[in-house]
Amino acid sequence: MPLTDLDRSLYEWQLDVPGFGESGQEKLRSSTALISRAGGLGGPLAFSLAAAGIGKLVIAHAGDLRLDDLNRQILMRHDDVGKPRAESLAATLRAFNPQVEVEVIPENITEANAAELVAKADIVFGAAPLFEERFLMNRECVRQGKPLIDCAMFSLEGQILPIVPGQTPCLACLYPEIPEHWKRRFPVIGAVSALAANIGAMEGIKLLAGFGEVSLNRMIYFDTATMRFQQIQVQRNPDCAVCQHVSL
Amino acid sequence: MEKRTSFRRLLRHTFRLPVGLVLRMMPLMGQVNFSYTGQLAAAAGVAEVVLDFSDDAVPLRRVLDELASRHGSKWGELIFDDAGQVRSTLLVIFDGAQVSGDKEDLTLDGVKSVMLMTPIAGG
Q1: Chain B residue numbers touching A174 (CB-CB < 8 A)
Q2: So what's the ipTM on this one?
């Protein structure tokens, strides 16, 4: 889909990015991204994808906004405490960039909706706080051959794992079962989740627009306590229950 | 037995050093830098330790047992499952690369850094 004059004006500064240009912008504008939860990670992620001019965002996020969400869930507004998160985040994104189509599903990822939601997207971003949801998205992305950018954080650390089925390890290659010790509540400063989110957003933008070097087969790890960033080589598990039979 | 005794002594010696001094040390010959992420670092109270080995081919399992006895039961529970085996969800990184295969059989032959990562899903 060719860019309009409005597109050229709106995205003028990023069209100058080497390797991106009008071609990259067109690809981004033709793309749909699914984000599982728009909390501390998914919110900034959705914001950055909207700013970059993704064509459509599908966001799955249930529940009502709580006061203690607001240290990190930057799409929400103080006045919306007690109201559905889905309404708050949709209003913010639509006001921020009306060019982007926003579909908000007031549900979290479940066995019942995972396949249908993943089918809507060209790329999926995992930002849910529970491994059950992340594993469902991982399984569906592998089944449907969709790339998944899994973003996670804990305290001052973040991990971003770009997954391309058949080409890279999937989440189940690294973690073959639900980690027993992960708790729903975790320590978080909003800036750390936003940092992980924006690294994930950038990996997704590069994948969709076809420029730069995506961190395939490498997990991006950072620790803001020391500002140590590193890429860790990861590998497929030949016995993975989810992706062992998938090849390019 | 002699090697095991030596390893234990060196392990204790390293832990007696002030943490700041250990963190600033460049690993020397025979030294391996162990770093922990996320919940492991929180449970241990430190993110990094340097261990000194007189034997290159020290089994990882033996080191994990030693570290668990030092760092306490909460740390040990993150590393070992109820059957006492290294958890399948623990990522073991040798010199920047994930190690595959049975974690019970790994040795530190020639390894300079070991990173232990537990899964995180904060969002």
Answers
A1: 91, 98, 119
A2: 0.90
User: What's the pLDDT tens digit per position in A33-48?
Assistant: 999 999 999 999 999 9
Of the listed ranges A76-90, A91-105, A122-136, B16-30, the least confidently predicted one is B16-30
Q: CA–CA distance from A53 to each of A24, A44, A192, B6 (Å)? A: 10, 14, 24, 61
Q: How close, in Å, is residue A5 to chain B by CA atoms?
A: 37
Whole-number Å distance between alpha carbons of B6 and A176:
36
Distance from CA of B95 to the nearest CA of A (A): 9
Of A154, A159, A237, the CB nearest to B100: A237
Q: From CA A39, how far away is CA A46, in angstroms rounded? A: 10
The distance of B64 to chain A (nearest Cα, Å) reads 18
Domains present along chain A, CATH in parentheses: 31-233 (3.40.50.720)
Contact B14/A at CB under 8 A: no
Model pLDDT for residues B4-13, shown as the tens digit of each residue: 434 444 444 3
Nearest to A129 among B88, B91, B123 (CB): B123
Closest chain A residue to B77 measured between Cα atoms?
A: A181
Over the stretch B39-79, which tens digit does the pLDDT of each residue have? 999 999 999 999 998 887 899 999 999 999 999 999 999 99
What is the CB-side half-sphere exposure of residue B42 using CA atoms within 13 A?
A: 14
Contact A40 B122 (CB under 8 A): yes
Whether B122 and A154 lie within 8 Å, measured CB to CB: yes
Q: Which domains does chain B have, with CATH numbers?
A: 2-117 (3.10.20.30)
